[in-house]
Specification:
This is HMA domain-containing protein. InterPro entries: HMA_dom (IPR006121), HMA_dom_sf (IPR036163). By secondary structure, the protein is α+β, with helices and mostly antiparallel strands. Helix content is 40%, strand content 16%. The chain has one domain: Alpha-Beta Plaits, CATH 3.30.70.
C-alpha cells in the first residue's frame, strides 16, 4: 500500500510539472473603437502561444491568456505596437498608427459612435 501511495504521488508530481504555465496579463492600450477591438483580437487570437485575448473598449484594457513557453508579455506588447496601438509603456509604431482608419487613431473617436 505504501508503495502504491508513493507511485501515485510521483505520478501527480510529474503531471503537475508537465503542465505549461498559462499566465494572464492585462495590458492598457490606446484602442478607440469596435474596429480596434476586432483588429487586436483577430491578430492575437491567431498568434501562436496566445490562448485567449479580449479587448474591453470602454476601459481600453486587453486581457491576454498565453503560454509562457511560447510567447512573452513583451512580445505581445510588441505585436500591439506593430498594429498601431500603445501597450502599457510600449508606444505604438508611428507608421502603423498612420495606416489605421482615422477612427482608430488616438483621439479618433472624439465622441463619435462607430
Amino acid at each position: 500500500m505504501r508503495t502504491l501511495m508513493i507511485v501515485f504521488g510521483l505520478l501527480l508530481t510529474s503531471l503537475a510539472y508537465g503542465q505549461e504555465k498559462k499566465p494572464q496579463i492585462v495590458i492598457q492600450t490606446s484602442a478607440e473603437c469596435g474596429q480596434c477591438k476586432d483588429r487586436v483580437e483577430e491578430k492575437l487570437n491567431y498568434t501562436s502561444g496566445i490562448i485567449f485575448a479580449e479587448l474591453d473598449v470602454p476601459t481600453k484594457q486587453l486581457t491576454v491568456k498565453y503560454k509562457a513557453n511560447k510567447i512573452t508579455a513583451d512580445e505581445i506588447r510588441k505585436i500591439l505596437s506593430d498594429l498601431g496601438y500603445d501597450a502599457d509603456g510600449v508606444k505604438a509604431d508611428p507608421e502603423a498608427v498612420a495606416k489605421l482608419p482615422l477612427c482608430c487613431q488616438p483621439g479618433g473617436m472624439d465622441g463619435h459612435e462607430h
